[in-house]
């Protein structure tokens, strides 16, 4: 694993509204899918990448996340009394994320690796001299449980371009990425989306993308759970 990525953040503060009624009682990251919570799956990826300093943010049913993580070492909790969205949540946690580059991983998606772990592939491609953000992009045609139109096009130089007015785009943002501290210089206060910073990075030609070569699952509603569990439990996964 690249030596310049030593920290990571796992986003676990969302409300999980589309997963109700399940998420009335437990936060979405603690929903169990094929024997493992989505939060544990994300943390396992990060820990296998050799990251020992991990921040997990909390909001909805935060006490349950705190209790669940009590047995894991190397984790700093960043509680948000008011939900800060993705950008605000990471900005709040910056003091715990080192001084340079770090992974950010959503805990409400599930992915499996190809021959080389996705985080290792991101670290290998990451160049902080040229990049402020490197997004792992999932081909829409291989995205399980996804019903959107895609987020990005990707050119031959690995530069993403938003779908814009196009009817569809071939790649979606997977929820896995590498960011640099400098991306947050001049960021909005309080609640905001990381999309604001992606667009700034794109304007500066410092936003890049890498296509994921493994499987990716969006567990958006209770109805999608059985199919995702079936696929994750199959021998080839």
Automatic annotation (TrEMBL):
Keywords: Magnesium, Nucleotidyltransferase, Transferase. SUPFAM superfamilies: Nucleotide-diphospho-sugar transferases. InterPro entries: GlmU-like, MobA-like_NTP_Trfase, Nucleotide-diphossugar_trans. Residues 8-133 form the MobA-like NTP transferase domain. The keyword Transferase applies. Pfam families: NTP_transf_3. GO terms for molecular function: nucleotidyltransferase activity. This is Nucleoside-diphosphate-sugar pyrophosphorylase. It comes from Paramagnetospirillum caucaseum.
């Amino acid at each position: 694993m690249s030596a310049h990525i030593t920290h990571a953040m796992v986003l676990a503060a969302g409300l999980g509204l589309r997963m109700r009624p399940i998420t009335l009682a437990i936060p979405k990251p603690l929903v169990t899918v094929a024997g493992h919570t989505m939060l544990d799956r994300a943390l396992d990826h990060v820990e296998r990448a050799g990251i020992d300093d991990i921040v997990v943010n909390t909001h909805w049913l935060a006490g349950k996340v705190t209790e669940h993580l009590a047995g894991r070492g190397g984790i700093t909790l960043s509680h948000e009394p008011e939900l800060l969205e993705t950008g605000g949540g990471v900005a709040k946690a910056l003091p715990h994320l080192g001084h340079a580059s770090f992974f950010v991983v959503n805990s409400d998606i599930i992915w499996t690796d190809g021959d080389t772990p996705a985080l290792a592939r991101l670290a290998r491609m990451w160049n902080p001299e040229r990049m402020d953000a490197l997004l792992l992009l999932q081909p829409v045609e291989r995205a399980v449980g996804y019903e959107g139109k895609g987020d990005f096009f990707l050119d031959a130089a690995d530069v993403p371009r938003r779908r814009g007015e196009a009817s569809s785009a071939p790649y979606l943002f997977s929820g896995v990425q590498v960011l640099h501290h400098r991306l947050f210089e001049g960021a909005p206060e309080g609640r905001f989306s990381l999309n604001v910073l992606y667009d700034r990075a794109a304007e500066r030609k410092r936003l890049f993308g890498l296509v994921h070569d493994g499987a990716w699952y969006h567990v958006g509603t209770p109805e999608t759970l059985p199919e995702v569990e079936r696929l994750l439990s199959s021998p080839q996964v």
